[in-house]
């Protein structure tokens, strides 16, 4: 059974196919209106979502299938062992997309599922976001060859899946990540990354920007904690520590790399508001591409699953 849990499951050929297929679907979406006729996608949410929810529902519906959204806490997943619920749910679905808090729960869901499981985001990985990021880079640059991407912010789930994807495709990745989310750290992945010669850690954004074709930033505060009063002290600590790493015009010093952000955006924190709508921003294209690349992923998993 083929699942997508981290992005490390895909080899170069499959990952390239998904990116190129996503571009084909984006250009001529009408050709795929019946590609998944009557195929059902269970969408299991333990975390809130805008882009994952909307893009997956739009994707499967535009492919001729249907989506069944389910709230984890309102279902028996919250009170019964995952292995039993997974065995049942997968008998009623052709695919499962799960957006869960803990990667261990996602892995258990996949282990007992009879259909492909897609990680819609967990504490350790966010492969669907990385797929859209890589598609956007390819669409914008026309190639992965010779491309350098800088990721600046918290080392988190998005960073992990980006690292995996960049290593697979041969994209040079510069990491400017002064804070690490402990739950996201993947020691094995990072050993491979630094040993690959493609991934490099830098201390300042000023070192990275002159070398960058794309600069990618992300929220400093996980969305579930952004308004949590119990997280106020940690939130302020992160803001104080990360402000020198804000993507802004002063940091760019007249250079014009393409700017990326996976959203939701907190203007005035990780990125200067004026840059969000600037000519070098590909942020909205990046967000739109979630739907297109997820169509390609669905086609890939249903063909090989």
UniProtKB/TrEMBL annotation:
Organism, per UniProt?
Paenibacillus hemerocallicola
Isomerase keyword on record: no
Family assignment from sequence similarity: Belongs to the aspartate/ornithine carbamoyltransferase superfamily.
Function of the protein: Reversibly catalyzes the transfer of the carbamoyl group from carbamoyl phosphate (CP) to the N(epsilon) atom of ornithine (ORN) to produce L-citrulline.
Keywords from the named record: Transferase
**Matching Pfam families:** OTCace, OTCace_N
Which PROSITE patterns does the entry mention? CARBAMOYLTRANSFERASE
Please indicate if the UniProt record lists Phosphoprotein as a keyword. no
Give this protein's Gene Ontology molecular function annotations.
amino acid binding; ornithine carbamoyltransferase activity
GO BP annotations of the record are:
citrulline biosynthetic process; L-arginine biosynthetic process via ornithine
Q: According to the UniProt record, what class of enzyme is this?
A: transferase
EC number assigned by the record: 2.1.3.3
**Which protein, by its recorded name, is this?**
Ornithine carbamoyltransferase
Show where the Aspartate/ornithine carbamoyltransferase Asp/Orn-binding domain sits: 146-300
Q: Which residues form the Aspartate/ornithine carbamoyltransferase carbamoyl-P binding domain?
A: 3-139
């Amino acid at each position: 059974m083929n699942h997508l849990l981290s992005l490390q499951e895909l080899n170069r050929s499959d990952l390239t196919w998904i990116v190129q297929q996503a571009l084909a679907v984006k250009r001529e979406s009408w050709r795929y209106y019946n590609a998944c006729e009557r195929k059902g996608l269970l969408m299991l949410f333990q975390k809130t979502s805008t882009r994952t929810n909307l893009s997956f529902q739009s994707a499967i519906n535009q492919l001729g299938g249907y989506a069944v959204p389910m709230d984890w806490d309102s279902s028996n997943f919250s009170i019964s062992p995952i292995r039993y619920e997974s065995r049942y749910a997968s008998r009623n679905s052709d695919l499962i997309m799960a957006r869960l808090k803990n990667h261990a729960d996602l892995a258990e869901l996949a282990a007992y599922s009879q259909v492909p499981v897609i990680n819609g985001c967990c504490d350790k990985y966010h492969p669907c976001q990385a797929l859209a990021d890589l598609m956007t880079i390819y669409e914008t640059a026309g190639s992965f060859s010779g491309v350098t991407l800088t990721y600046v912010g918290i080392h988190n789930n998005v960073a992990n899946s980006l690292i995996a994807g960049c290593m697979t495709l041969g994209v040079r990745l510069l990491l400017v990540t002064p804070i690490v989310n402990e739950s996201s750290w993947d020691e094995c992945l990072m050993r491979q990354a630094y040993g690959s010669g493609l991934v490099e850690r830098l201390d300042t954004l000023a070192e990275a920007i002159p070398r960058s074709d794309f600069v990618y930033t992300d929220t400093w505060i996980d969305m579930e904690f952004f308004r949590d009063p119990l997280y106020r002290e940690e939130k302020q600590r992160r803001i104080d520590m990360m402000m020198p790493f804000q993507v802004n015009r002063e940091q760019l010093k007249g250079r014009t790399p393409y700017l990326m952000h996976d959203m939701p955006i907190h203007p005035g924190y990780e990125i200067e508001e004026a840059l969000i709508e600037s000519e070098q921003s590909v942020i909205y294209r990046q967000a739109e591409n979630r739907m297109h690349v997820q169509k390609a992923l669905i086609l890939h998993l249903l063909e090989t699953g």
